[in-house]
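Progress note, sequence design subtask.
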C-alpha cells in the first residue's frame, strides 16, 4: 500500500496516531440529568437516539467531543463522533493526536470490512486488538487531511441521503403487496370485472371448504435421515412460500401413524407454533413424497382449484391472517390449534372470479418483484459507491496535493512526540489519584 501513496504521504500503524480508552459499566446510573452527572453512552446513543441514562461514577472513561467512538464488542466497527459522556463497556474511545477526528472516523469506515473479518469470539464478536492497532494508516500532510475531510463532508451526506431513501423501498413494497391483497379479498380488485358478471360471494369457513385439516405427527425425529421423504418444517414456510432449502428428510415405516399428512399439490400449509405462526404456503408442485411435522398444519381442500384464492385470503392482513393472529395471540397462547384454522371465515367468490383475482394479483406482484430487483441492484451500487469514494480519499485521489504542505513524515514525528508527552502526563496524574480510583 505504501508504494501507492502520493508524494508527501507516509504509511504508519493506527496505534501510532491515537490514544484510546475502553469503556466500562458504571456502578450507578440515573434517568435524568443532574449536576455532576454526564450522559452514559451506549450503541443506541452512538446511532443518534436520545440519552437515556446519566452517571457520576468516577471510574468510568469519559469521551470528549473530539474523540471517535467505536463499538468494540457486538456490532463491531460502528463509529460516531461529537459525543461527550461516559462510555459503556462495549465501546472504546479513540483520541486522535493532532489529526482531525473526522479523518480518523472516515478511515475507520474504510477499515470496517477488515475489522469485521478479523474479529474474535464465537458468539458475541470482539475487535481483534492485534489486527486493529496494526491497521496500515495512510497519513497525508495535515492540511491535505483537512481538504480530504471537507470533500468527504460534501459527498458522503449525499450518499447517505440516497441510502436512507432506498431503505424505505422494502417497507413501501410490503405495503404495496398488502394493499393488493386487501383489494383482492374485499372484491375491489375485480369491481369493474364484476359489473359484467353479477354473481355474489359466498360466506363460508375453511372447514366447510376442506376435505380435512390436520397437523404433522409427533415423534418422527427418530425417522430423520440423510435422504428419503421431504419433511416440511416451520422454517420452510417463513416467507409465506414453500422454501425447500435446508430441508430435512425422513424414512418412515409403511404402517406409521400420520401417513395422511403426506403432501399433495395444491395443499395449503400453515405454521401453527413458534415465531412463524400463521405463515402460510401453497404447494404448487408435485413433491413425490413429503410430509409436514407437528408444527405445521395441512389443509386439503375439497376443490383444489380454490387453493390459489384461499392462499391469498390466508396471507391477507385484513382477512385470514388477521383471524389467525387474533386466535394465536389474542388469548395469550403461543400458537394455533386446528379448530382455529377450521373456524377461519371466508368470503368466497365464484371460481371464474377467483381466477381473475389471482391473475391480477400475480401481475401486480410481478411488478413489485421487478421493483425489488431494481432496489437490490441500486442498493448494491450505492454501497459500493460509499467504499469507492472512501478508497479514493485514502489513495490521495479525492483532494489536491500541495507541495508547500508539511510532509507527512514530519507530521508523524510530531504526532509520536505529542502522544508520548500526553501518555507521560497521564501516568503522573494516575500516580497521584487515591487508590480507590485507580
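Output:
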Amino acid at each position: 500500500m505504501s508504494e501507492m501513496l502520493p508524494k508527501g504521504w507516509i504509511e504508519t500503524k493506527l496505534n501510532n496516531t491515537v490514544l484510546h480508552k475502553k469503556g466500562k459499566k458504571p456502578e450507578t446510573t440515573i434517568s435524568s440529568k443532574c449536576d455532576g452527572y454526564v450522559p452514559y453512552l451506549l450503541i443506541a446513543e452512538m446511532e443518534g437516539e436520545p440519552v437515556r441514562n446519566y452517571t457520576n461514577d468516577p471510574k468510568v472513561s469519559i469521551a470528549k467531543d473530539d474523540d471517535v467512538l467505536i463499538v468494540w464488542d457486538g456490532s463491531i466497527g460502528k463509529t460516531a463522533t461529537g459525543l461527550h459522556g461516559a462510555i459503556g463497556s462495549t465501546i472504546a474511545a479513540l483520541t486522535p493526536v493532532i489529526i482531525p477526528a473526522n479523518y480518523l472516523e472516515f478511515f475507520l469506515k474504510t477499515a470496517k470490512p477488515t475489522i469485521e473479518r478479523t474479529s474474535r469470539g464465537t458468539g458475541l464478536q470482539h475487535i481483534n486488538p492485534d489486527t486493529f492497532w496494526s491497521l496500515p494508516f495512510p497519513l497525508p500532510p495535515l492540511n491535505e487531511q483537512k481538504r480530504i475531510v471537507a470533500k468527504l463532508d460534501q459527498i458522503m451526506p449525499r450518499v447517505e441521503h440516497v441510502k436512507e431513501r432506498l431503505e424505505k423501498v422494502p417497507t413501501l413494497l410490503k405495503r404495496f403487496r398488502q394493499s393488493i391483497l386487501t383489494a383482492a379479498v374485499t372484491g375491489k380488485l375485480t369491481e369493474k370485472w364484476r359489473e359484467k358478471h353479477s354473481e355474489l360471494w359466498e360466506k363460508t369457513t375453511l372447514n366447510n371448504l376442506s376435505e380435512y385439516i390436520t397437523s404433522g405427527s409427533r415423534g418422527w425425529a427418530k425417522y430423520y435421515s440423510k435422504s428419503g421423504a421431504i419433511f416440511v418444517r416451520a422454517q420452510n414456510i417463513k416467507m409465506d412460500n414453500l422454501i425447500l432449502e435446508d430441508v430435512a428428510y425422513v424414512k418412515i415405516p409403511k404402517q406409521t401413524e400420520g401417513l395422511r399428512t403426506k403432501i399433495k399439490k395444491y395443499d395449503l400449509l400453515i405454521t401453527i407454533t413458534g415465531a412463524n405462526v400463521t405463515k402460510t404456503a401453497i404447494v404448487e408442485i408435485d413433491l413425490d413424497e413429503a410430509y409436514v411435522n407437528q408444527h405445521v398444519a395441512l389443509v386439503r381442500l375439497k376443490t383444489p382449484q380454490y387453493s390459489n384464492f384461499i392462499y391469498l385470503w390466508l396471507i391477507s392482513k385484513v382477512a385470514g391472517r388477521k383471524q389467525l393472529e387474533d386466535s394465536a395471540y389474542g388469548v395469550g397462547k403461543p400458537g394455533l390449534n386446528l379448530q382455529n384454522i377450521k373456524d377461519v371465515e371466508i368470503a368466497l367468490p365464484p371460481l371464474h372470479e377467483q381466477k381473475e383475482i389471482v391473475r391480477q394479483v400475480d401481475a401486480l406482484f410481478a411488478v413489485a418483484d421487478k421493483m425489488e430487483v431494481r432496489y437490490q441492484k441500486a442498493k448494491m451500487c450505492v454501497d459500493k459507491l460509499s467504499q469507492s469514494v472512501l478508497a479514493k480519499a485514502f489513495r490521495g485521489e479525492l483532494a489536491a496535493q500541495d507541495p508547500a504542505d508539511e510532509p507527512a513524515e514530519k507530521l508523524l514525528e510530531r504526532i509520536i512526540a505529542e502522544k508520548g508527552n500526553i501518555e507521560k502526563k497521564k501516568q503522573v496524574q494516575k500516580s497521584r489519584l487515591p487508590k480507590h480510583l485507580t
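The chain has twelve helices and 20 strands. Work on this subtask will continue into the next period as scheduled.
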